[in-house]
Amino acid sequence: MRNQYVYYHFLPPQNYLAEEIIIGSILINESYLSRISQIVTTETFFWECHKIIYRGLLELYKKKISISALKILYTLWNKKKLKQIGGISKITSLIKQSQSFISKKAHLEEYAKIIYYHYIQRLIIQYGYHIIQLGYTNKLSNDYLHNTALNYLNSLLEITQKKDSDKLETLIGDLLVKITNEEERAINNTPKTTSGFYDFDKLTNGLTNGDLIVIAGRPSMGKTSFAINIAKHILSTLNLGVCIFSLEMSKLQILHKIISISSHIPVESLISGQISKKEWCLVQSICNKLLISDLCINDTPNISIDDLACKAKIIKKEFQTIQIIIIDYLQLIQAGNINRKNRTQELGYITRTLKLLARELEVPVIILSQLNRNIETRINKRPMLSDLRESGCIGPNTKIDRKYYKDQNLKFNSKLIISDFSGKFSTDINRYQAKIIKSLKQYVYTHIINKIKFIQLTHNHKILTATKWKKQDQLYQEHLTIEYKEYKPNRNILEFSPINNIQLIQKSNVYDLQIHDYLNFLTNNVVIHNSIEQDADIVLMLYRDDPYQKNNNSPKLLDIIISKHRNGPIGAFQLLFDPLSTVFSSVKHAEIYNGLN
């Protein structure tokens, strides 16, 4: 008896009787399920047998099949789950149990709330256990531990506060409220978060909370200055807070830029102190306004992404007016102690973390980024979206097979997407479409694999080997690649195959293949890497024809290219850039926005 008491005492929070009453009542009256399913999910139940039965009930409900004891018995028997839940006697027991209690809908909702309450208690225990285990870990940084613990707590908060967010009536209600608020904002002329540039705001409808915005360009294009122009507008015109993480420039250098942009005094004059009395008064006035603003600048070099996210959350909590986070720049952020096989995967982890940070803090996050080196090999230096990626290109004679792998675990997906790279593309499945981008001519390497197969790739495309992903220029003869083979009908295996020869071919037309949601695909049955799109909602690219001319102090026209916009149109416009004061101004609508002075 003592052992039984101890076992029962240490069971996680649950209510066996309430779970039985709910399922039994649904078996008797299927109309209860529509409301109960909005309160509890399969995971809300504690006992595995109840989870299985409830999952079967939901399947019948979604298929619009009338629910009865006979139907659920047949469903469970067909799935070979009937014995696992306790057989026919379990179903009859559930029905008898529910008949012993008053099975009104209002009472059932109370039982549903009881088991949901216990579900939250179990989650608190689970997350608390994970946090305790983090405390005993020695190999991870304090920032990573703190950020992970916060993520556990935030996950719990999301579950408790947003459990009804997937209901259609809630979504429609939120949508109508948002439209009403936008209408009231327009009537009352309430300012929204804008960038300060008319053409940009017209295309993007301003800076949306939760968006990750990438500003990219070649060196000396003015990426940092463009971002600080936006920051200055938010600080001065909108009177909102700004948080800047500068991994390249010091706090003083950032401050010099803000004052220069606000006063139109060249940065060099501010640094040397060669300014007039009138300009000095103007600088004092700007500094006084900055003192009462919520401007936070962090210039920690080589900061890890977990440290950055942790500090951003603390700053946002301390300064509620923070309306934007600017990070300069992506390639200088460290992935920390996270085990990633290459820098490309690290950057992917960083951008996903920043996207989650933007959504969690409900502010736009602007991240500056360099372009890959492929652009320097082109005659036309105008940037494209593919210049953000690190993956290479594929030769014109490479066959793309019909089999795809969706992630790094190589889960097989047999749905047809592409039939032949050199032939026509098949779009039988409209939601999975591939996009082919022709690049300029590059040197192509032919790999002879298993003596009979060959693929053609550029120097930086990745192939899956026996140990890890390797770029083409890291491969040697006798390296083992991963090859897909059909072993038996409906059975497939992955097999090591040797590289017999690698040959450099003359320059040839190459192609960048974009397949959304897929990290790997097959060429001649060899698993190679897919180009991964950025996690950004908006991608801006800065471009001008003469960035490295000697006479570089005169104002320049820059093309601002919106290469990607998840929730709106793409396009391009021009801004005037003054290299001395680093001021960006709209060509046609500069008079719309006022400065800090």
The radius of gyration is: 30 Å
Identify low-pLDDT runs: 4-8, 187-191, 391-435, 477-484, 514-533, 589-597
CATH class of the largest domain: Alpha Beta
* Backbone structural class: alpha+beta
Name the CATH superfamily classification of the largest domain.
Answer: P-loop containing nucleotide triphosphate hydrolases
The percent range for strand residues is 15-25%
Distance between the termini: 81 Å
Can you give the mean pLDDT?
A: 71
Keywords for this entry:
nine-stranded mixed sheet; 597 residues; 3 domains; DNAb Helicase, Chain A; four-stranded antiparallel sheet
What layout of secondary structure does this protein have?
Blueprint: H1 2-9, H2 16-28, H3 33-36, H4 48-62, H5 69-78, H6 82-85, H7 88-99, H8 105-135, H9 142-161, H10 168-188, H11 198-204, E1 212-217, H12 223-236, E2 241-246, H13 251-263, H14 267-272, H15 277-291, E3 295-298, H16 305-318, E4 322-328, H17 343-361, E5 365-369, E6 400-405, E7 412-413, E8 434-438, E9 442-449, E10 453-457, E11 462-464, E12 469-471, E13 480-488, E14 491-508, E15 511-515, E16 520-523, E17 526-529, E18 538-543, E19 556-565, E20 571-578, E21 583-586
Parallel strand pairs: 1-5, 1-18, 2-3, 2-4, 4-5
Antiparallel strand pairs: 6-7, 6-16, 8-15, 9-10, 9-14, 11-12, 13-14, 16-17, 18-19, 19-20, 20-21
